[in-house]
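Q: Can someone sanity-check these two? First one:
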Amino acid sequence: MGKLSGIAIAALCLIGLLIGVAAVVIVQYHYSNEGTIIEPLEVSLANEPLEDLDVIDWTDCVRGITTPFGDLTVKNIGSITVTISLTTGTMPTGLTIEWTPDSLTLAPEEVATAPLSLTVASDAPLGDFTFDIVLTVETVP
């Protein structure tokens, strides 16, 4: 009987091991990746570095007045010539952004500076506003 119970214990251990192995679950997670290889720029506004997604705070603007913010400076720190254009997302009614020129071409290490200003029409609605400024960089063939 001692021998049989040793075999029974061994069989139970083997069954337990098989059940334990069968209970192992492997889960894999996959993550998509995306990005863009870019020509780098240094951008500053009113002599302060400006990073992607920074907020430009125009504070209080008055109807019928153009508010200058300061010079928007762009430096091509890449290795090839690029064209840079400034556009805006949907502008709130009565607001106009100005940075002249709207588009320019910069060789490597070249810098361009121009004043950035916001004009508020005399009939612009009162209240808070938001809009996006987008600098687009295109390589020059």
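And here is the second, same format, sequence then tokens:
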Amino acid sequence: MLATVFARGRRRRPPFVRLDEITRPQPNLGHLAHAATALELARAGDHDAARALLGRLTPEMLTNLTRDGYWPGVVWSVSAVTHILGDTERAAALYTELAPFRGQLLIDPAGIFLGCTDHQLWLLANTCQRSDKIRQHRHDATATYTRINAIWWSTQLMTY
């Protein structure tokens, strides 16, 4: 804000404020940008570029994600892109991160519904070939979508 501030009849410049002093840290914003872009590249068939971009998110990073407003988007994007690419290492890491949140709904800061955690766990279990978990996660996701009448999301379970 470069405008002159009027106070008690005198003109003075507003104090300089650094942007990092008035915004909160958002560590997952960069992770979301990489994961979402990798997902779109994978969907477009450019798997090499998607793998290169997803490579910026190490398994260690995925098991230590900050649970901020961008966390649901990172979970959703990484679950989908690791499934498309067959990236078992990252899928296993995110599965470990997400497992304690079974039965939850994923909603991003804009209020956009990103499915339920059981859906993402189902994708990750499929990618990791965890046959002991696949059926249960799909059942739980289907039950959640039926309970909340999320018809479109139920059909997404049928497309994989």
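A (reply): Looked at the second one. Residues 131-147 form the longest helix (17 residues). The chain has a mean pLDDT of 88.
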